[in-house]
């Protein structure tokens, strides 16, 4: 009998300890002797309904504290997210807003024309008519344009032959005119009014005269830009400056005499730059095969430095 009572006492003690541990965890106390300090024995703690209600209240309070901490943590994370990504969010909002404005604001152009309408042609019409009325002035202007084209070609070829270290520009030229040839078979524009591009009686290498419908995109302006980019790549400053002037002059001439539309000039510049950049990323194999270069796209100074390091390494060996 005494052993059975001891077993029951131990069982009651364990039950009390479990309930007390739960209560202490909810209440955040540091020890489990608080009820003894308050003069409560184990049976009172278990049987007292007030303590049970207090435990429920503590559990509810703990749940509220947990929710508050969760909300606080979420607010902190949201603030960090906004601080890091506010600019990206702003860009997305602006893009969506702009798209909605264009779509619903009736800002899409709906003009119907029989022929392409070029504002630059209209702005340069007085100069075009003046050139047509003065054949001498007109022929000198066209001859000067052809001469500038040839000079740009000669300068870039001389610089490339002397200091060239990459097949980038020759391949860019092939890519530029290859894409242009395909597009011209797919898309043909009508001849603009007051177009004039006849032989001025001055010999030239590159220019082709006559009424030709190879408008989109401009090979003249694209070739000028490729010459400029290669001269810049070779650090040929004087030739590059000359090409800047030549490119502007050639573009102005083409628009004045209506050899090209404005879209032809703009697209020619974009495509020339695109071809030059794209070829620069894949030209290493061509340089290895054609020019026997061990490194890609080195400028002359870096090339000399690399060769010097190679020679010093061989000498040490």
Which key features would you list for this structure?
mainly alpha; 317 residues; 74% helix; disordered C terminus
Structural description of this entry:
The chain is mainly α. It is 74% helix and 0% strand. The protein contains 13 helices and no strands. Mean pLDDT is 78; it is low at 27-47 and 310-317.
Q: SSE layout and pairings?
A:
Elements: H1 2-27, H2 34-37, H3 42-47, H4 49-104, H5 119-123, H6 125-133, H7 135-163, H8 168-186, H9 219-233, H10 237-256, H11 262-282, H12 284-291, H13 300-316
Number of E-state strands: 0
The rounded distance between the terminal residues' Cα atoms is 100 Å
Tally of helical segments: 13
Helix amount, in percent? over 70%
The largest sheet, given as strand count, sense and whether it forms a barrel, is: none
Shape descriptor reads extended
Strand content: under 5%
Contiguous runs where pLDDT drops below 50 for at least 5 residues: 27-47, 310-317
Order of helix and strand elements from N to C terminus: HHHHHHHHHHHHH
What radius of gyration results from the CA coordinates?
A: 41 Å
Mean pLDDT across residues: 78
Structural class: mainly alpha
Keywords: Membrane, Transmembrane, Transmembrane helix
InterPro entries: AtPDCT1_2_TM_dom (IPR056361), PDCT1/2-like (IPR055311)
Protein name: AtPDCT1/2 transmembrane domain-containing protein
């Amino acid at each position: 009998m005494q052993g059975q009572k001891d077993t029951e006492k131990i069982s009651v003690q364990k039950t009390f300890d479990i309930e007390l541990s739960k209560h202490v965890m909810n209440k955040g106390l540091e020890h489990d002797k608080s009820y003894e300090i308050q003069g409560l024995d184990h049976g009172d703690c278990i049987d007292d309904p007030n303590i049970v209600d207090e435990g429920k209240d503590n559990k509810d309070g703990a749940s509220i504290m947990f929710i508050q901490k969760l909300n606080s943590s979420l607010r902190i994370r949201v603030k960090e997210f906004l601080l890091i990504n506010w600019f990206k969010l702003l860009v997305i909002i602006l893009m969506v807003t702009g798209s909605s404005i264009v779509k619903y604001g009736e800002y899409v152009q709906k003009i119907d024309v029989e022929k392409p309408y070029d504002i630059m042609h209209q702005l340069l019409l007085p100069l075009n008519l003046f050139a047509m009325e003065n054949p001498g002035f007109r022929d000198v202007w066209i001859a000067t344009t052809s001469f500038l084209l040839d000079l740009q070609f000669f300068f870039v070829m001389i610089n490339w032959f002397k200091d060239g270290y990459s097949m980038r520009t020759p391949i860019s030229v092939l890519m530029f005119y290859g894409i242009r040839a395909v597009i011209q078979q797919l898309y043909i524009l009508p001849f603009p009014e007051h177009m004039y591009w006849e032989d001025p009686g001055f010999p030239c290498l590159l220019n082709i005269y006559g009424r030709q419908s190879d408008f989109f995109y401009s090979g003249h302006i694209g070739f000028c830009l490729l010459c400029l980019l290669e001269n810049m790549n070779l650090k040929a400053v004087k030739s590059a400056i000359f090409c800047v002037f030549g490119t502007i002059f050639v573009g102005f001439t083409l628009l004045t005499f209506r050899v090209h539309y404005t879209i032809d000039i703009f697209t020619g510049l974009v495509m020339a730059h695109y071809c030059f950049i794209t070829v620069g990323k894949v030209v290493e194999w061509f340089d290895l095969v054609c020019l026997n270069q061990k490194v890609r796209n080195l400028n002359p100074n870096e090339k000399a430095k690399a060769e010097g390091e190679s020679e010093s390494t061989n000498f040490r060996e």
